[in-house]
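Field log, afternoon session.

UNIT: design team B
ACTIVITY: writing a sequence onto a fixed backbone
BACKBONE:
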């Protein structure tokens, strides 16, 4: 993958655009080909179900999925056998999950072969990479149907707000769109199959943002989507300079990071529309979708989600879930390592699902680069590696970053060289990266990992350049 990215970055802009579109054609087919439309229809029909119906449906899928995993997965068959747990004797999700141990990312990394079911006669299996809030990468298999169901759930939420599959979108995410050394526009590529204008998050400096704004005014995409930290950065730039986009987008949605209240306020004031969010992950063990009333509904029909008290507060819970849509990588009681606060009541929109008041995890800081340029989020920096158990960036001087790493089994000098290469590419020339190996990375007081520990944000950087989103909610 690293070689492909290097090759891409050396291409001229026109060839980069062609490469983006060729990759997008394949991606669109995987996500939206075949049975996607029928899956989306079934998912949308469940929006009108009563809470009791959705819970019954969830418990049925969970029981069937557990029977499958016990039969075909050596890992679960051994684990449940030692505990004396019988799936057939359980009648509800609560009965099933309270008897099982919690699965963590390290367990999957250490037991990936035993975890895999032995009936892998699936022609459309796909590999998925994750990063997660700990910075530790995970690679696993999924099926095309599982991927399409996940995207159907995400599109159900978008369609609640009137966003159609054919809507053009200005996308602000973590994908590498242009070389870090590129000095002038375009810092974006047009993805025609997905109807996206893909803006580089790595080049959003005060010097470059006028070019972004000019392109947005020219293209006028009705929908903006991306990391809230990047959308807030754009909004902050406009507000500080008393500018506007020249038009008002109809929708702004965010994902991959927790949308903080100050970010939502910046986006509303700078872009003219209140952002909507959903919470999800590639492992597909939990998903929350924001409705028109601004409430995050647990998508009970998609995964079996459990909220485990943190012990620090009566109101905060860890997210633990089971991904009953993916038969190739069954994750039962998987700890997402995120913290949430629950809302005790129901939502006036009438849709089913428990209500999450706030997601306290998955919050990323910025890294301050040479000359004050900011880079964020940084979770994606370690997406490719599975030999790093945990990683955290520490910074006290602009342009200098120390990465603290907990090494996993198989970690080697080649991993070290690749980390320095990958991080150096993202940070760009003139920035210094060093590695520090530790046995453990401390959690915050709320039980979360912080991707970045910065002594700079809020002290030496200009808030107008970094936006108020630099402050992490605890």
């Amino acid at each position: 993958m690293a070689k492909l990215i290097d090759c891409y970055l050396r291409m001229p802009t026109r060839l980069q655009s062609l490469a983006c579109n060729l990759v997008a054609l394949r991606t669109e087919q995987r996500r939206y080909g075949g049975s996607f439309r029928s899956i989306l229809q079934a998912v949308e029909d469940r929006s009108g179900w009563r809470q009791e119906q959705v819970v019954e449906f969830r418990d049925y899928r969970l029981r069937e999925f557990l029977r499958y995993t016990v039969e075909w997965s050596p890992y679960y068959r051994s684990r449940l056998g030692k505990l004396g747990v019988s799936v057939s004797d359980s009648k509800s999700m609560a009965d099933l999950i309270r008897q099982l141990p919690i699965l963590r990312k390290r367990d999957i990394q250490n037991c990936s072969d035993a975890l895999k079911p032995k009936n892998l006669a699936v022609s459309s299996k796909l590999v998925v990479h994750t990063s997660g809030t700990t910075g530790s990468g995970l690679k696993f298999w999924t099926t095309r149907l599982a991927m399409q169901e996940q995207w159907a759930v995400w599109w159900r939420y978008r369609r609640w707000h009137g966003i159609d599959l054919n809507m053009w979108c200005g996308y602000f995410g973590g994908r590498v769109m242009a070389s870090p050394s590129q000095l002038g526009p375009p810092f974006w590529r047009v993805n025609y199959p997905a109807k996206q204008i893909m803006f580089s998050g790595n080049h959003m400096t005060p010097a470059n943002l006028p070019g972004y704004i000019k392109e947005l005014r020219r293209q006028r995409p009705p929908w903006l989507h991306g990391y809230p930290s990047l959308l807030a950065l754009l909004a902050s730039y406009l507000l500080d300079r008393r500018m506007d986009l020249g038009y008002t987008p109809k929708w702004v949605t965010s994902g991959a990071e927790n949308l903080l209240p100050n970010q939502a306020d910046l986006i509303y004031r700078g872009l003219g529309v209140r952002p909507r969010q959903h919470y999800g992950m590639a492992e597909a063990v939990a998903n929350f979708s924001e409705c028109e009333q601004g409430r995050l509904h647990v998508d009970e029909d998609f995964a079996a989600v459990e909220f485990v008290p943190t012990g620090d507060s009566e109101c905060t819970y860890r997210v633990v879930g089971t991904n009953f849509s993916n038969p190739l990588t069954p994750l039962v009681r998987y700890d997402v390592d995120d913290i949430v606060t629950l809302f005790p009541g129901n939502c006036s929109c009438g849709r089913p699902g428990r209500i999450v008041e706030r997601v306290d995890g998955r919050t990323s800081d910025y890294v301050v680069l040479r000359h004050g340029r900011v880079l964020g989020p940084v979770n994606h920096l370690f997406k490719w590696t599975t030999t790093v158990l945990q990683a955290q960036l520490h910074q006290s001087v602009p342009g200098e970053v120390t990465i603290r790493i907990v090494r996993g089994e198989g970690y080697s000098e080649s991993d070290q060289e690749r980390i320095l290469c990958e991080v150096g590419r993202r940070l760009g020339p003139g920035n210094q990266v060093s590695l520090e190996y530790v046995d453990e990375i401390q959690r915050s007081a709320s039980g979360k990992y912080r991707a970045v520990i910065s002594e700079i944000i809020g002290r030496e950087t200009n808030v107008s350049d970094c936006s108020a989103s630099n402050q992490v909610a605890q």
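LOG NOTE: Residues 458-474 have pLDDT under 50 and may be disordered.
NEXT ACTIVITY: expression trials, pending approval
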